[in-house]
Write a structure and sequence with these properties.
The protein is built from 10 helices and 13 strands. It is α/β, with parallel strands linked by helices. The chain has 2 domains: about 100 residues, Enolase-like, N-terminal domain (Enolase-like, domain 1, 2-Layer Sandwich); about 230 residues, Enolase-like C-terminal domain (TIM Barrel), CATH 3.20.20.120. The strands form 3 sheets. The chain has a 7-stranded parallel beta sheet, with helices on one face. The chain has a 3-stranded antiparallel beta sheet with strand order 1-2-3. Strands 4-13-12 form a 3-stranded antiparallel beta sheet, covered by helices on one side. The radius of gyration is 20 Å and the shape is globular.
């Protein structure tokens, strides 16, 4: 017989993380633990990491749903893609917990080059919003660390100042040497977005994530058709549960890229559907974490390591927290890697 429980844990940022939606100083995750009542050594743990302001499930009885699932955990042993579509972070937590359970709590879900420590995952260097001086410092640090793909959050400070920072990169590095991505988090509006896309395209920016707020499907479709800069959808994919709804979004808006976050976009099962549809429509995609702890990041990274994608992924967020869990994950030469000689330490979660 399988039993389950959950525990709340607050991760604290080493320094405030700014986005167009506000500044994060902490974020909360809930960890699902499952065990075999007849064999206490057979355990698994998974992270549910919804984001306030982005995850509709937080307003849809999140804690009640988590409690109900833990009371009847055996119902969720086999998760079809449509199960828990409205609770993507819970779905990802369950997927991870069962993967861990089936692998005897080792937190190694797939045997491949990544988990054997012989192959890394290419990641982008994430630059957070802030003053021009803070942005400039972050960019210099990322370039010095060898990142060939820089992702900047834009839309918080003066746009000309943001362009100036990108121009500084381009004065030193050509697009073939350093890829620049920007993420507006919906900060632009229909009146200014095309001028801003033209300005970014002139600097050979690779792509822009979610230039305008989600939900403007007609406008977003026209924008994707006419933009001088490839557009990637992110927030637009939140809350789209069924395969048919996903297909409709892909066919109607037809973006150039999808940015897939399992905690927001349907867990691994839901993201696999997005990938299937994107591949059929010749749309690119990459995987990004959503400020999970190392437990969630480990699951996302291992799943990503099984996919065929040569683009840089957004998986460098494990270093953001002062009270993250010691894990085999580490970053070396702008790649996320797995140290087979390092063990997990979850004492912070157990003692919290």
């Amino acid at each position: 017989m399988i039993k389950a429980s959950y525990k709340k844990y607050t991760l604290r940022f080493k320094q405030p993380a700014g986005t167009s939606r506000g500044i994060y100083t902490a974020r909360t995750s809930w960890f699902i633990s499952i065990l075999d009542a007849d064999n206490p050594l057979q355990t698994g743990i998974g992270e549910c990491a919804p984001l306030p302001g982005l995850s509709p499930e937080l307003d849809a009885g999140f804690i009640d749903k988590l409690s109900d699932i833990c009371r009847d955990i055996e119902r969720y042993c086999d998760l079809t893609p449509d199960v828990l579509a409205g609770f993507p972070s819970i779905r990802m937590g369950l997927e991870t917990a069962f993967l861990d359970y089936r692998n005897k709590g080792t937190k190694i879900f797939y045997r491949n080059g990544f988990t054997e420590g012989t192959k890394g995952i290419k990641i982008n260097g994430l630059v957070w919003m802030g003053s021009p001086e803070f942005l400039d410092e972050q960019i210099r640090n990322k370039l010095n660390e060898g990142y060939a793909c820089i992702k900047l959050k834009v839309g918080a400070i003066d746009f000309d100042a943001e362009l100036s920072l990108i121009r500084k990169i381009r004065n030193k590095y050509q697009a073939r040497d350093v890829e620049v991505r920007v993420d507006a988090n919906g900060a632009f509006n229909p009146a200014n977005v095309m001028d801003r896309l033209n300005a970014l395209a002139a600097l050979n920016v690779h792509s822009i994530e979610q230039p305008v707020k989600a939900g403007q499907h007609d406008f977003s479709a026209r924008l994707c058709a006419n933009s001088p800069l490839p557009i990637a959808l992110d927030e637009e994919l939140i809350g789209i549960g069924s395969f048919k709804q996903k297909q409709d979004i892909i066919n109607y808006i037809h973006p150039q890229f999808l940015v897939l976050k399992p905690s927001l976009h349907g867990g691994f099962g839901g993201c696999s559907q997005w990938i299937e549809l994107a591949d059929v429509s010749d749309i690119g995609w990459w995987i990004t974490s959503a400020l999970e702890s190392n437990i969630g990041l480990n699951a996302i990274a291992q799943w990503t390591s099984t996919l065929r994608c040569n683009l840089h992924h957004g998986l460098g967020t494990g270093q953001l927290f002062m009270n993250n869990f010691d894990s085999p994950l580490y970053i070396d030469n702008a790649e996320l890697k797995f140290d087979v000689n390092k063990t997990w330490n979850l004492s912070l979660l157990q003692n919290d």
